[in-house]
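Batch manifest, entry 17 of 40.
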Amino acid sequence: MWHCLIVEDDAVNANYVAEGLREGGYDVTVCEDPAAALELAMGRHWDVIVLDRMLPNDVDGLTILVAIRAAGLKTPVIVLSALAALDERVRGLKAGGDDYLAKPFALPELTARLEALIRRSQAPAAPMRFSMADLQVDLLNHRVERGGKAIALQPREFRLLAYMMANPRQVLTRTMLLEAVWNYRFDPQTNVIDVHISRLRQKIDADGGPPLIHTVRGIGYVLSEDSASATDPSAAP
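Output type: structure tokens
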């Protein structure tokens, strides 16, 4: 069961959203007072917060959002507001909102957005370091080592290697590599993948260690300690 805090002073709108979410299996708490809402937001675990902009005593809901972000809370927050202008939406996102939905809105859209926020927040953090055999890739510091020796890569080569390290022992087609590293900016028939793989192989597999980058003839490439996982690993490039 997902726990949702709704900060909204319009009783009709708050009840409409709360009932809809409860029917979808949410545990919902509604609060209209800004001070009490801030205390609730910071004092309990919530899977998601639905935050209205215009609250009693001329309080802008974004002040609550700024406060909980300043406290280090990463709870997903969707801002609801009749202030639908582009600059207002930008303000909401810059204040720490994860999404911004203008009123009036359809409940199914709100529910879909909430589910997307929750899924995103609960996804495991992407690893920042990868290793295979004696090859180490540090995404945070943009550093590659093999056998303890630093390897200098060009930005595109680094992205290509990082993608392969994130998908080890899997055959990666040229199309997959084009999508992930080149964002479809090249024709699938181009040899740009082969050229970059060749350069990367020369740097990664250069010092006589077991080759890690293998060609799967007619399909693509695989990063693996086991050359038997590839078809004709000696094939060019």
